[in-house]
Amino acid sequence: MPESRGRPVRRRTASVALAVLGVLSIGTGALTGVSSASTETPMPAAPPPSSAGEQQVSKDITFDCPFAAPAGSQQITLTVSAAVPATVQVGSGLKFRSLAASFLLPHAVAAQLAPTAADGVRGGLTLDLTAHQGDKHSAIPTPFTVAATPLPETGDVKLTATADLPEQAITVPGKVSFDIGAPTIALKPAADAAAEATPVACTLLPDQTTTLASVLATQPPANTPGPSKPDPSPPPAPPAAEPNAVSPQDDGFPLVTPLNYVQVTATSSIYRLGATVASSRTAILNGSWTLILDPPDYIPRDPSTISGVVGFRPVTATFLGFGFVPVSATVEFLPVDYRNSKLIDLTGQLWGGVRLTTHVQVMARMSNAEVNGVPLDLGPDCVTAKPVSLNLSGKYNATTGGIISTDPNSPDPDYRGFALPPFVHCGTAEPLGPLLTGMASTTTNVNQAKVVNVNFSECASNKFPDHTKCKPIPDTPPPS
């Protein structure tokens, strides 16, 4: 690497990197995306506004939503509102401000979600805002969050969901309209963190218009910089996720089936670092599949349970701290009782034999750090201040495995990602916890695990089965 030409160059590099860090790049196909002009480009002294004439928009649309019995199917009128500019320059960001969706939840549905009014409900919903321009269209997944809302003693309850959609950049001039898609709603008791929130996929009733807003995209004046090339579209999101709680029921007859050897690989995308930490192959030990058979007919209860323990080897991660400082460190994922054990308990609920949901708590530890090639002594106990809480779900089969993950577009906010807490007890010569916290800790991270059952007869071994000699798990794309 060539030597630096002096401190002024390093300061300029740092300032450019920090400016780039401030831009959230999200692409949504041919119509929308976010692009940022280089800080090297001279800007005019008084640039023209990139958008003008903000308009308040609102749309009422009625859907049929098949809630569980006894409430059953209900018609829900969803009111979506936002503030958007009437015009926007090509290449600049279009922001949906104060984006909200409200609806009346029928009393019959609220009563079965929260048996007592004091419980309240919380959750979320997701829908697509589809941008149309000419004969092209692009769907923008939009997750909304419903805060904990108390229930009235009688009557329906009004729920308001809010969303913070990243800026969208229009890349060609012309009129762009945004249509509202059918929502998927997931609600549960506010006080019960372990309760199941079953997503309800609503359908649009016929003979309705769904356009929320129309925006005119105009060419920027000739003396202003043109837009840079839009970012590519993100890969498809992982399957939608759901919680994994089981309602208390009478004891039944447990049927426990030991599982064959199960291999696991895991990846975690840390948003603030712009890095993906991938584990080496490991195994689930003492794996079992437990079915509860309910008398008198001994019909299997849903869900069944997948359980076991797993340990992950330390891995080396490399990334750019604050977007420009080269950093490498050893990263470990450990159980909450990491001082006395290296094995993490796993318990998941297998719904309908096809979908696994699980809640996992781990501690993250960092060591052997180097910053720009210079060793940084973090000490032996540089860990997160509290456990990392992971809610994972996905398609799964008890005998063949599957992929479970967080889902940024899940209707249930608890399953959209995970928070990386602050780091503590870091540094022997000076406190380094705040430095690591500033570089890595955030709330918008994504986790994914691939679990595969392995036939030991396919693994070469002289005396005993050895999972390291099994065929490797096929590469899993990093979580989006």
Automatic annotation (TrEMBL):
Residues 62-213 form the DUF6801 domain. It holds the Pfam family DUF6801. Residues 222-241 have a biased composition (Pro residues). Residues 35-56, 217-249 are annotated as: Disordered. It comes from the Bacteria. InterPro entries: DUF6801. This is DUF6801 domain-containing protein.
